[in-house]
Specification:
mainly alpha; Amino acid/polyamine transporter I; 3-stranded mixed beta sheet; 18 helices; 2% strand; globular
Length: 496
């Protein structure tokens, strides 16, 4: 059969096709909460602090408030859409129903960039930590990377029940590490002397008590891309919709609980980490491991290796949960025929998308190893830690814009669609999400490192869209997302 919308052709798969692609429902509210929080929590351990160098403490605070507003608008929109469209496709599913097959595919492609590259970046930092702990040479790094992927892809393949249990445990451990840090940091805090130690226009200010916005409001806005790391990947939670026991009830609760947890943690780390004696915003702005620096300021250098091992927990939590999301994201696009259908086959006994997870891991590893061979580990470090990470952020911003637009169109064109939960922010919240995401992209493009990353994303998009235009759109399959979109598309209010 064909669909004139987007010039696509469908085939109706038999029962055996979907039997080979079955998932197992297990997750409740707390499993979903852990999936969302765990995916983000490594951003509270490192990465966010680089914004201190561009905006100072006040600029980072302003940027974090703005980005938190964007994520609230996004997550409330997702909390409405995910129980109304409870499919593993998540962002792709929302956009497919709202904007047709091309809109769905491009949105899915944006997310694909984020979920394939982000685990690669995280495992790189895991390797750096392990190298420092065990004293391995730089040339040994690929062994840590491969080992990390094998271990956590393997845990995700073993079964959804084990995967969610591991997610819950490592997320609680990561939050416990932060809670211990906060408890020991609070008595030592001297905010004015340490957090405000950047002089107007830059440079360290001896004794602190510097300006709130040392680089002005422009510096605060330039810090927006760094503040994203405090919340990036919370949006992955709806990818578990078909593995949730009751997505219509639990998905909104899990999303909102996760967002509340992240807001408390984000502002806690922002306030306490730069305020410690011997740390400060100036030094932290160029630190590779800000939380580790904070622990050293509290407990001393003698415990560095033990503290580094503890600080690994947050990276492990995010790596494990984003591997989960990566597999489901590739699985959903493959099951519907946008990607080759072979990628969506699930394990016959464990009902996990093992092919999709292995394929995503191989692509991420190939990028890392290619940079390692071509550039060498030192140059590769800058590329992986900077350019690739920024590629993931750019893909995420594009995805957020598409999801917020999907929310607006669904509200407008399908007002009668069943919505077990309704966003209290409504359309204005989605519009605000789009505006802030566009502003963030603008400041990404103002940075040469971000611009080079955008070129990589453009190539990714070109390859994906080329495949879909030439082949994929002629071989789509009536998956649950597609059937839902076509059924409701016929009922949509005409666009005027």
């Amino acid at each position: 059969m064909t669909d004139s919308q987007g010039g696509v052709a469908y085939r109706k798969a038999d029962a055996d096709y979907f039997a080979q692609r079955g998932l197992k429902a297990y997750a409740g509210v707390w499993s979903l909460w852990a999936l969302g929080v765990g995916a983000v929590i490594s951003g509270h351990y490192s990465g966010w602090n680089l914004g201190l160098a561009t905006g100072g403490w006040g600029g980072m605070f302003v940027a974090t408030v703005i980005i938190a507003v964007m994520y609230l608008g996004l997550t409330f929109s997702i909390a409405e859409m995910s129980p109304a469209l409870p499919h593993t496709g998540a962002a792709y599913s929302f956009a497919r129903t709202a904007m047709g097959p091309w809109g769905g595919f491009v949105t899915g492609l944006c997310e694909n960039v984020e979920y394939v590259l982000t685990p690669a970046v995280i495992v790189f930092f895991i390797g750096s930590y392990l190298g420092a702990i065990f004293g391995t040479p730089a040339a040994f790094q690929p062994v840590w990377w491969i080992g990390g992927y094998v271990l956590f892809v393997g845990l995700n393949i073993v079964g959804v029940e084990l995967s969610f249990k591991v997610t819950l445990v490592v997320t609680l451990m990561a939050l416990a590490v932060l809670a211990v840090f906060w408890a020991f940091a609070i008595p030592l805090v001297d905010f004015s002397a340490n957090a405000l130690d950047i002089a107007a226009g830059g440079g360290r200010l001896e004794g602190g008590n510097g300006p709130f916005l040392p680089f002005g409001i422009g510096g605060a806005l330039a810090t927006l891309p760094f503040a994203v790391w405090l919340f990036l990947a919370i949006e992955q939670l709806p990818l578990a919709a078909e593995e949730s026991v009751d997505p219509k009830r639990d998905m909104p609760r899990g999303i909102m609980a996760g967002m509340a947890t992240l807001i408390v943690s984000a502002f806690g780390i922002l306030l306490l980490n730069p305020s410690l004696p011997g740390v400060g915003s100036f030094a932290l702005g160029t630190s590779a491991e800000p939380l580790l620096d904070g622990f050293k300021a509290i407990f001393g250098e003698g415990t560095a290796k033990l503290l580094a091992l503890i600080a690994l927990i947050g990276l492990v939590a995010s790596f494990h949960t984003i591997i989960f999301a990566q597999g489901r994201q590739i699985y959903s696009l493959s099951r519907a025929g946008y990607f080759p259908p072979a990628l969506s086959v699930t394990h016959s006994a464990r009902k996990t998308p093992h092919v999709a997870m292995i394929a995503g891991a191989c692509v991420g590893l190939a990028v890392m190893l290619g940079l390692f061979v071509i550039l060498g580990v030192e140059s590769g470090s800058a590329a992986i830690g900077g350019t690739l990470l920024n590629m993931a952020v750019f893909g995420a911003m594009c995805s957020y814009i598409a999801q917020a637009l999907s929310f607006i169109l669904l509200r407008r064109n399908l007002p009668a669609m069943e919505r077990p939960y309704r966003s209290p922010f409504g359309v204005p919240g989605a519009v605000l999400t789009i505006a802030i995401a566009l502003l963030t992209i603008f400041f990404q493009l103002s940075d040469p490192i971000y611009r080079s990353g955008v070129l990589g994303v453009a190539l990714w998009f070109a390859l994906g869209i080329g495949y879909f235009a030439l082949k994929g759109r002629h071989r789509l399959i009536l998956s649950p997302e597609e059937e839902f979109a076509m059924e409701h598309g016929a009922k949509a209010r005409p666009v005027v």
